[in-house]
Design a protein that fits this description.
With 540 residues, the chain is α/β, with parallel strands linked by helices. Bound molecules: zinc ion. The site of zinc ion (ZN) has 4 residues, from loops.
Length: 540
Amino acid sequence: MKVRFVGPLGTVTGSCTLLEHDGMEFLVDCGLEQELPGPGWNQAPWPFDPARLRFVLLTHAHADHCGLLPALYKRGFKGFVYCTEETAKIAEIMLKNSAGLSNSEFTEADVDAIRWRWPHKNVLGGYHPMAHDLFVQFFRTAHVLGAVAIRVLWGDRERGQQKSIIFSGDLGSDVEDQEGLPFLRHRMDVPPSDFAVLESTYGSKTREPAEQGLGPRQERLKHLVEKIMLEKGTLLIPAFSLGRVQDLLFDVHWLVASEPECYADLSLRLDAPLAQALSPVIARGLDRTESNGKGKVRPLWLGKQIFRWLGLDDTDPADIDRANDICRLTLGLPAVHPDAAARGNEIAQAWPLLLSSPTDSSNGRLHARQETGAKIVIATSGMGDHGRSAQWLKALLKDPKSVIAFSGYCAASSIGGKLQELVNLPAPERRRLRGEIPWGNGDATSTRDIQATLAVLPGYSAHADQAGLAAWTFSQYRGVASAAGRTVFIQHGNEQDRVALSRALTEHGRKLGVPVQCIRPMADDGFYDLDADCPVASAA
Ligand SMILES: [Zn+2]
C-alpha cells in the first residue's frame, strides 16, 4: 500500500488523499479548497486519473471533504463513494444546494451521478470488505452527524501480515459521558494502527474546558436574550447549516422551556433554507439505533447527555420516544409520540415547538402577533458573507437595539471576521474608525455607523483542540496505552498548527512510553510506501 497527500497541504480545506494497493487506486475524501483567490486545486490537473480510481472513502459531509465529488465524476470517475448513510444523505442535500449557487461549476444532475454506498449493519467498528484482502472500518468522531474516522486494513491477517492506516477526518471534542453539544454522541476510541493521518485544524489551540458545555453556553445566550427582551430588539446569530444551527436551536428551546413564563413574548425565526432541508435527515439520524453485538441496542449518533439533561432514562422505551420527540420539536418537526410528552424533568415536559414548520421560514414564531417584539433570528451563512445572514446584517447593523452574535469560525477576510474585530469596541469608539463593511455591488456600511451590539457565542466548536487531538491519538485502547498510529501524518491544518501539533504529539508519546513518529507531508512529496515504511524513491 502506498499513500500520497494530493490535496492542498498547509491549509484546512481541500482534503484529499490518494492510496494505491496492488495496482488499485482509491481516494480518502475529495474536498473543495475554499476561500481561494484563484482556481487552484479545484480546477488543477489532479495528480491522478479519476477514471482509474476504484472507489472513494468519505469521512463526512463538509464541502472541504466532499465538495469535489461531482467534479470527480465529471472527469471520468465511475466508482462508488463509501461512507455512512447519514453522510451520504447530508452530502447529497448540501451538494445540491451548492449546485444552485451562481458560481457553481456543477449541476444537480452531476450530484445525481454520485453512486453512494453505505453499510447497513455494524456501521461503526464493523469490518467492511472492499477487495479480497482490503477492509475498512468506521469510527464515530463527534464532529457532525455521520462523521467517522476511516481505518483501512490490508494484507494477510492469518499470516500476521495485516497492516492498517486510520484517517481521522475531522475530530470533535466530545468524549464519553462529557458531551457538551446536544446532538453529537461521543468520539470513539480507535484501535492502534500502523499509521494514522491526523487533522490539525486547531493543532496549536488550547480551549478552556469551561467554554464547552450547556451551562456556560446558556449563561451567555441568556445574557444576550435578556438584553433584547428589555429593548424589544433582535438577536441575530449567523450560523453554519450543519451542526451549528441545530445546536443553537436546542439551546434556545432549552432557555424557553426552562422558564416559559419569562420568554412567552420572545419569537424565534430560522432563516436557513439549507438547514431546514437537512432537518428531516438529521431527525432520522438521531433516531437511529444499532446493536452492539451483545443484544443491546444503542443510539448510533445521539449521546446520553440529552437524557441526563432532561431527566430521561436512555433504557426506558417511552423516555427514548420523548428524547426523539424533543429532537424533532427542536428542528421544527411535529412530535410522533404525544403520549410520551409527560416524561422527564420540567424542562423536558415544557419543551415547546417554536418553529411551526421546518420548511416555512416566514412562520417560525412563538406567537404571530409579536412581530414587533423581541426576536431571535438564526440565519445562514455563519460568516455573514452569503445568504440570508448577509441580508439580516445589512438591515440590523445600524440598529442600536440589535445584538449580533457570531457562533463560529469566521475567516479574517469575511464580513463576520471584520465585525468580530469590533466586538470589544463600544459604539462611541467605533465612530473614530474609518473602515467599512462591503456588501458587494459597491454597497457598504461605514464602521462608524454600526450601532448594534456585537458579540461572540463561544462553546459551539465541533473541532478538538490540541489536547483533544492528542487524546484521540493516544488512548487506553482495551486498557492498554496505545497510539492511533506509530507513524502519524499531520494533515489538514495551517503550517503553524501542523508544527505545533507535531511537537506536542512527539512529547506526549515520549511521556506515555508510546513513541510516535510525526511526519508533515509537503506538496511536492511523492508516494510513501506503507509496507516498507519509507518514501518511494522518485524515478529521477
Ligand atoms: Zn468538517
